[in-house]
Amino acid sequence: MRSNLFAFVFSLTLIGCGNSGAQKPQTNEANGAGSAQQIATASVESQKLDTNLILPAQISPYEAVAVYPKVTGFIDAILVDRGSQVKTGEVIARLSAPELVAQRMQAEAGLHSAEAQLAAAQAKFASDHGTYLHLVAAAKTPGVVAGNDLQVAEQMSAADNAQLEAASNNVQAARDGLRGVAQLESYLEIRAPFDGVVTERNLHPGALVGPASGQAGAQPIVQIENVNRLRVVVPVPEAYVGGVQEGQEVTFNVPTFPGRKFHAPIARISHDIDQKTRTMQVELDFRNAEGQITPGTFASSEWPIRRSYATLFVPSSAVTTDLQRTFVIRVRQGKAEWVDVKTGVTVNGKTEVFGDLQPGDVVAGNATDSIRSGTDVSAQSR
Q: Quick check: do 37-52+310-381 and 55-62+226-303 share a fold?
């Protein structure tokens, strides 16, 4: 009996201990249900944007041309090779075209024939016109010359004059034809169109070449590039094209010279947004007199971003997204409020934002979608 009573009392003691331990979490939970969530906050700032943005760039020669001949022929000699420096007008290749020699001889023969016809026409006109003038003088004496003879002589002189003009035109046409053939022959010497360097040589003596549009123009003889002056082409994103101005100096660097900065002015602005990339092509004009930078190199430009008016900035950590919207969490009267924004440039840890915000507004410094709109919060300045 005693043992049963002792077991009963011991059981009641254990149950009492268990109940007292279970009540403590309920008390803590009840006490925390009405307290506001503590969050770090920051202020919305208004300032004018003035910074540099790193944008990729492509360096290309100021001038580049694939050299094709203007006439079809065989290469007799190529006087340059890859890496050769050339000057404007310098002969870089010579061609041979035997058919041009035949054309020149034919043109010369045509000119001689036209000149002979011109001489005959001049002689006939001189003779007939002299006869006409003689009859005009004789006709002043009545009855000496019949009127019909005078009229025939006049018409003959006029016809001879027309023949003379036609012969003169034929001579001029023959001369132009000969000059054209001579011009074609001059194309057998291929000259450099500008100062530059030969970057490619594709053919050798004996090859048949011709204009790019012909069957023999499958390959250019050489490629020439002007590397003393370079185009640094920067694709500027659509959002940053507003302040681009010609003459503005831009700094860039290339992998070939790590740590070294180069400077060039903005020289050409395309004023056209590419529909696929949403960028505008802007060119810097770089004088590469020492030949340090090689065309085709990629570069990084420190692109200046300026705004003439003030915009709003918040700490970058104050902007968050839930995959459906981008927003900041404004703290107003102890409540969290989601405010949709669009972001601009990030500068020194602060992000430019556009939305229903005002300078001085208080926002959550570390925004997260776990802080729901309408939640009670207690602001704590960062």
A: no
Would you say domain 55-62+226-303 falls under CATH 2.60.40.10? no
Task: List beta partners, residue 229.
Answer: 287
Sorting pLDDT into bands at 50, 70 and 90, what band is 29?
very low
Q: What angle do CA 172, 177, 183 make, to 5 degrees?
A: 125
Q: What kind of fold does domain 37-52+310-381 have according to CATH?
A: 2.40.420
Interval 219-264: pLDDT, tens: 999 999 999 999 999 999 988 888 788 999 999 999 999 999 999 9
Model confidence pLDDT, tens digit, residues 183-225: 889 999 999 999 999 999 999 999 999 988 777 778 999 999 9
Q: HSE, CB side, 13 Å, CA atoms: give it for residue 193.
A: 13
Bin 251: left if φ > 0, else alpha if -120 < ψ < 50, else beta.
Answer: beta
Q: Is 179 left (phi over 0), alpha (psi -120 to 50) or beta?
A: alpha
**What is the residue extent of each domain of the chain?**
37-52+310-381, 55-62+226-303, 69-92+194-220, 98-187
